[in-house]
Amino acid sequence: MTRFDAATPETRRKLFAEAITAHRERGSPFCTFEADDDATDAEEAPPWVQFGDGVLNVDCTEDELEALKAVLGEFPAFKIDGIQRPEEVEGVNVHVSALADPNRVAQCIDSLFREVFDQPEEFRVWVAAV
């Protein structure tokens, strides 16, 4: 990979697909995408989505979980595998099976950032790990 951030819908989806492909080629445990700090409330950690072994890993609030379920309705090949509610932290950890080509996974990830985490159209995302 030669670039690690993108800020428009088209370039973000391309970045996601390239990082997923690089992750698969390298055999790394996962790749992580994180919204730019400037696009989030300073008191909160920026939203992130992780992909590994055909599974999306997402931390969200209960309200965001409902939005996540709505987004997945637009991606019928993606299914929630598990929901964990750790006692020591607020929120929910969700595992979503994402057994699709990198471009389709990229579309879903972009929708998660925009519709679940309420990121603006032109938000910047970073590949934090590959």
If you had to describe this structure to a student in words, what would you say it looks like?
By secondary structure, the chain is of the alpha+beta class. Helices cover about 35% and strands about 25% of the residues. The protein has helices at about 10-25, 60-70, 100-115; strands at about 5, 30-35, 50, 55-60, 80-85, 90-95, 125-130. A seven-stranded antiparallel beta sheet has the order 1-7-2-3-4-6-5, with helices on one face. α1 (about 10-25) crosses α3 and α2 (about 60-70) packs across α3. The longest helix is centred in the N-terminal third of the chain and has 18 residues, at about 10-25. The protein is globular, with a radius of gyration of 14 Å.
List its traits:
130 residues; alpha+beta; 27% strand; Alpha-Beta Plaits
Distance between the termini: 9 Å
Helicity, in percent?
Answer: 25-40%
CATH top level?
Answer: Alpha Beta
CATH level-two architecture: 2-Layer Sandwich
| CA gyration radius, whole angstroms | 14 Å
Class derived from helix and strand content: alpha+beta
Tally of separate helices: 3
Shape: globular
| Element pattern in H and E | EHEEEHEEHE
Question: Quick gist of this model?
Answer:
34% of the residues lie in helices and 27% in strands. It is an alpha+beta fold and 130 residues long. The protein has one domain (5-37, 49-129): Alpha-Beta Plaits.
SSE topology sketch:
Elements: E1 5-6, H1 9-26, E2 31-35, E3 48-52, E4 55-60, H2 62-72, E5 79-84, E6 92-97, H3 102-116, E7 125-129
Antiparallel strand pairs: 1-7, 2-3, 2-7, 3-4, 4-6, 5-6
Helix pairs in contact: 1-3, 2-3
